[in-house]
Predict the 3D structure of the following.
Amino acid sequence: MRVLVVEDEQLLADAVATGLRREGMAVDVVYDGAAALERIGVNDYDVVVLDRDLPLVHGDDVCRRIVELGMPTRVLMLTASGDVSDRVEGLEIGADDYLPKPFAFSELIARVRALGRRTSVPLPPVLERAGIKLDPNRREVFRDGKEVQLAPKEFAVLEVLMRSEGTVVSAEQLLEKAWDENTDPFTNVVRVTVMTLRRKLGEPPVIVTVPGSGYRI
């Protein structure tokens, strides 16, 4: 899952981004509405965590722009106000969910994951394919009933491949979904991560390399 965090309180924004990355998500961070519109125009995000009161361009206008573009991106709006009228207004603008500050980080994670599931073809909460069972919420992976310990990026890559349901996923798509925009597009990090993931999943290999195209399970 790729997420954009838009929050003008830099410490809060960076803390949220760090927490989401620990959950295996690819996260970009900006601190004002103008930068948010720039990123949205360049990258495809599953979820935007959007503070409402932003400098330069208000969060409401960012949300409206996402709706106008017809993007599948889901918006989780944050605000310091917990008034019902504010929540209703935010949802009417086009936000998919609303979370008042201060919030429990576990709730933020759950809401981001729930919104992320809405951006693609509906799939069961627990993914199963080729003897692999992946639970995104519990961060657990099993191969033929035996638990497999994965690093966050390995988990993220496996989740993208599982969600593709047997179709080929290119290295570029994996890079976009599992890493943030600061990653060098010419790096071999995808190949290395797939290699270690194959090793940890054991025999027989389940991740197939399709020459010139990418990978699939």
Notes: The chain has two domains: 2-117, 127-216.
